[in-house]
Amino acid sequence: MEPGTEPGSTAPVSRRTALRTGVGLVALAGCTGGGKSSSGATSPGRSAGQAGTAEATPAATRSASASASAASTGPGSLPATTAWVPGPGEIQPDVKLRAVQLIEALGSWPPGGSGAAAAGARVAALGGVDTALVSQAGPLLPTADQAALQVIDAQYGGILADSASVLVVCDQWTAASPTGPVTAGGTTVDVRLSAAAPRWTVTALHPAAPGAAAGSLSAAASSVLADSRIELPPAALADVRSGSVHDSVLQAMLTLARTYSMSVSVVRSGHPLDVFGTTRPSDHPLGRAFDVWRINGRTVVDPTTPQDLVDGFMRAAAAAGSYNVGGPRQLSGGTTPNQFFTDDTHHDHVHVGFNS
Q1: If you average pLDDT over every residue of the chain, what do you get?
Q2: What is the average pLDDT across 331-337?
Q3: I want to staple 176 with a disulfide (CB 3.0 to 4.6 A). Which of 10, 48, 180, 279 is the partner?
């Protein structure tokens, strides 16, 4: 996610603790924003690569992905999952929780609970959520007898006084029958919200739609897929496999992986087309940026994560060629006056962007 404010301006920041240890399928998310309405409010904008799901991939090609399980396993129970809970350091944690609870309700159901009607009942049980959003769930509602969903990360794609984008990255497992094989998949959903009391209102869902796998890949893309220190969720993984990510991004990942292990949240698909709250195109949909939510096993949002670790990663990203590095603190220096930035949106991840 790029800065939503003018260069040189500052704003509060947001942090979060991740809680996830499972395997399976990950959703791809991304930072972006919708255009402003005539009233100045941010209207729900379309996300890059809307409505789709990351292809299930053999573990050998998923490398260190959080979804490193095979595409399908033998008959058996779906993996156990844990409800996502905001950790310390979050800005407006209930905004994220509102978004995540909807995605968890849509993407998980017991045997016999498939279909839009059952999904609508689960959404209605949340209270205060429009059941019409079921029609925007896309890949979260595959044809399956049962499903389980695990949120990997909930990252801000943008947070303003009256509107927000929460990128919910998740794994999902499905079984076509009670005794059938379990299939792993995942997606990232850009959840749009508007301010309301007592809780913010979800206004739109934009699931990621990574492109099809390319027939051949660059050496950099192949190296990223094989690097065990670069953890890619399904949508980000599919982005790399599609050949739609610039080599500048891939080479930076490889350079950073020499020093750090990193968990990527979003690359291209699942991210809003514009920087949130502006009409400026985001670098993410162009395949020129990636976001990192965990470094060396420590989440960026957690206030107990050493500042030197995150700050050092940000400086290393700039040294690797990024012109636009955002994170939880404003760093000094840089080759340009605004190479480093911070705002509320980037309290929970590091954004690494490239202009070519």
Answers
A1: 83
A2: 89
A3: 180
Report the DSSP pairing between strands 324-326 and 340-341: parallel
Write down how long the chain is: 356
Q: Give residue-wise pLDDT tens across range 4-21.
A: 533 333 333 332 233 232
269, 208 Cβ separation under 8 angstroms: yes
Structure tokens at 82: 């844990």
Helix ranges restricted to H, 19-168: 59-62, 93-107, 116-126
Enumerate long-range contacts of 194-201, CB under 8 Å, 24 or more apart.
194/41, 194/162, 194/163, 194/164, 195/161, 195/162, 195/163, 199/94, 199/98, 199/128, 200/94, 200/95, 200/98, 200/164, 201/128, 201/129, 201/130
Amino acid at 326: G
Q: First and final CA of the chain: distance in angstroms?
A: 16
In this structure, what token pair is assigned to residue 25? 């399928």
CB 6 within 8 A of CB 249: no
Residue 23 has pLDDT above 70, yes or no: no
41 has a pLDDT exceeding 70: no
